[in-house]
Amino acid sequence: MSTLKVDTLQTTSGAGLYPARAWVNYDQVGVAVTNSGNVSSVTDNATGKYTVTFANAFSAATYCGGQLGFRRVAETQPRYIYDDGDDAPTTTVSVMYSANGSTGNLADVDVNRISWTL
Fold first, then answer.
1. DSSP β-ladder status, 64-70 and 32-37
2. What is the pTM of this model?
3. Which residue from 18, 42, 65, 67 could staple onto 81, CB 3.0 to 4.6 Å apart?
């Protein structure tokens, strides 16, 4: 196996590329990581709240998280995932929340797909 190390990725025309530095598929209901990259663990803190710990720290806590959540088929309410200003991100962890799309109440989500870029 070979390792490719670069400082900057660009398209052939010189535009920057910004790949995910970490990502995770997480099932809050089953409390299980189903797949991940650069994520060492996910801690279930409470209904609708969990902490993602990165395997390798980011160089700064100013990363951007992109989130996508799915509801159980039997449910009629959409879900959304977000990070909260009350739990400021650090270079090693990101605290995430999931909520009912209609009420805003915290709720567990079957599948959370999250990626972080810096």
1. unpaired
2. 0.81
3. 67
